[in-house]
Design brief:
By secondary structure, the protein is mainly α. Helix content is about 60%, strand content about 0%. The protein has a domain of about 55 residues. The chain contains 6 helices and no strands. It is globular, with a radius of gyration of 23 Å. The two termini are about 40 Å apart.
């Protein structure tokens, strides 16, 4: 709700196109920062997608080799990703790293359980990965590299996420 006292008559070029109200320099600066941040993430995502394609992580053949225990290629990549993630978490905790906005990064302790839900979920995930021949992570990279049939898998993943979101209140957590 806008206060009448805040509304001023301004030139048309300084009005915000979304609601017709004048935008302040702070709002424009914030919008520019958001666009710059979004552009940074899009460019990083494109770079990461190229790395996934070039390293053959998205290759159906490489994934089948992994599940048949015929090649170390994928295990080496996954193992190095785990090592980098573990090292990153260690550094974040040790040096109290903050976000780009200056907020502290907190990593909550997880309670140990028997792990039945993780075993069942991991089995379902692994079966889907093996049957599809693609991990959900690089689906966009696969579509971008020309494997447009993967759009069916992407739509299926979105439908599965929607079903989970709908059923989540009724599931034991």
């Amino acid at each position: 709700m806008h206060n009448i006292a805040e509304q001023t008559i301004t030139a048309p070029e300084s009005r915000d196109a979304s609601d017709g109200h004048a935008s302040s320099p702070a709002q424009e600066s914030n919008r520019d920062a958001q666009v710059k941040s979004l552009l940074t993430y899009v460019l990083l995502g494109i770079f990461f997608g190229i790395v996934l394609v070039k390293s053959e992580v998205v290759s159906w053949f490489r994934i089948q080799e992994m599940f048949r225990f015929q090649s170390f290629h994928m295990y080496g990549i996954l193992g190095s990703a785990i090592a980098v993630a573990a090292g990153s978490v260690l550094l974040i905790k040790r040096f109290n790293v903050k976000t780009v906005y200056g907020e502290p990064i907190t990593i909550k302790q997880k309670a140990w359980s028997r792990g039945y839900s993780q075993i069942i979920g991991g089995t379902i995930f692994g079966l889907g990965w093996a049957l599809l021949g693609a991990c959900p992570g690089p689906l966009y990279a696969l579509i971008g590299s020309g494997a447009t049939v993967i759009a069916v898998a992407l739509l299926s993943a979105v439908a599965g996420a929607w079903v989970y979101g709908t059923l989540r209140p009724r599931l034991p957590h």
